[in-house]
Amino acid sequence: MFHLMFHLIDEKKRQLDKKRPLPVNSLNSLKEALAVEWTYHSNAIEGNTLTLAETKVVLEGITVGGKSLREHLEAINHKQAIQYIEDIVTHEEEFSEWQIKNIHQIILKGIDDENTGVYRHENVLIVGAKHFPPEHFRVPDLMEQLIQWYKTEAQELHPVERVARLHVLFVGIHPFVDGNGRTARLLLNLELMKAGYPPLIIRKEDRLAYYESLDLAHTEEKYNDFHLLVAEALNRSLDLYLRVV
């Protein structure tokens, strides 16, 4: 099923590539709209209560009454993290642990400065999941192995399968005390964008399917459900780009 979806995605990417260079104003408005939606959905998945409209005004520098400082910072930080990964793509920087730690540092800036960009020194649980993340002392080695795998074996996979598997493995390691989900979704899009695809958005309303498919991948090494969820999200982004440009 998801191989058919990959074929459809490849065809839409070819159509998009034919239109390059994309019109500057159209591209900027797309990026701006996607940044707001991406920030809203990624934070909402983690329990942030800002609405899409509230997220937009917070990113414009307006304070929303009745919402916590943390929720404001989560929106502002996420937008900054998007800008950071766009810079990485522009400069064609190689995937690295340094980048991962920098992304995480931006995500938790002003929220939990003690743990920003620092691998966890304690064991954690993923709420509602059957999967147990590895013991904290194994995290540095596992992250090193993840980068090594990504630079070698993973390059043989279809780009969509590659980024989906990266997301699964990263979340499985759960290298940080907090902010793993947001960081994982930013990494997924960072690598998608490097491969010439638009960023995708995993929607708040798909939260249950997202968590369940991740847990299935972690506990039974069944990846199809998660690959399909990622492919469907990318398909939506490609449709949006093709419609606008």
Describe the fold and architecture:
The longest helix is centred in the N-terminal third of the chain and has 22 residues, at 24-45. The chain is globular. The protein is mostly helical and 245 residues long. Helices cover 64% and strands 0% of the residues. It has 10 helices and no strands. It has a single domain, classed as Orthogonal Bundle (Fic-like fold). α5 (97-107) crosses α8 (180-194). It has helices at 2-18, 24-45, 52-59, 69-90, 97-107, 139-151, 159-173, 180-194, 207-220, 224-244. This is Filamentation induced by cAMP protein Fic. ATP binds at residues 178-185, 210-211. InterPro entries: Fido, Fido-like_dom_sf, Fido_containing.
The structural domain count equals 1
Q: What's the main sheet like?
A: none
Mean pLDDT: 96
CATH homology superfamily name? Fido-like domain
The tally of beta strands, per DSSP, is 0
**In CATH, what is the class?**
Mainly Alpha
Secondary-structure element order, N to C? HHHHHHHHHH
Q: Which stretches are low in confidence, meaning pLDDT under 50 for 5 or more residues running? A: none
Looking at the structure, the CATH topology is Fic-like fold
β-sheet strand percentage = under 5%
Work out the radius of gyration: 17 Å
Q: Indicate the percent of residues in helices.
A: 55-70%
Structural class: mainly alpha
Individual helix count: 10
Give the second-level CATH assignment, the architecture: Orthogonal Bundle
> Terminal Cα separation, in Å?
28 Å
The backbone outline, from C-alpha atoms, is: globular
Domain Fido: 95-232
Binding site for ATP: 178-185, 210-211
Pfam families: Fic
GO molecular function: ATP binding
